[in-house]
């Protein structure tokens, strides 16, 4: 009876050892299952922050473009305006400087002549003016009884002078020196003198006096 139990024990022991060996081999040869990939999801707070940053950037860009357009739309607003000079006009329609001369010499020269002046500058003594315009050139006006008397004597006594009109109070003519003529109108009653220098090579003195409205041959 004792002899028959030993072989069974040995067989059982061998079977257990073989099973353990097979289990160990199977475990070492089969690869371990790969871990599941981890997925990262953006948290709601990070999405809100990203959206807020994008909105802020868009608003800043929009404000910058709007500011640039408003500045370029009207460049005159950013530039300082330069002061402009204005010339006051009197009731007669002339500027103040021309009106001052016209009030004094209106009896010796027509209004149409003053309308052709751009300026009348006061020179030397009071009531002396140099008036000029592109169409008529420059004329000298003087309010002086002594000068009116002296100019009348020169105009009527010199052989180089030509008198077109002499009514006592009013004398119109010119004096010649070479190719230069001094056109002269004198009002002895009010002590006024008007003169202009002219080149006789370019224009006839009488025609010039008529053109200026200082002499009318029909009168």
UniProtKB/TrEMBL annotation:
Top-rank taxon, per record: Bacteria
Signal peptide annotation: 1-24
Keyword Protease set for record: no
Signal keyword on record: yes
UniProt feature, compositional bias: Low complexity: 28-49, 57-75
Disordered, as annotated region: 28-95
PROSITE patterns: PROKAR_LIPOPROTEIN (PS51257)
Keyword set, alphabetical order: Signal
Name of the protein in its database record: Beta-N-acetylglucosaminidase
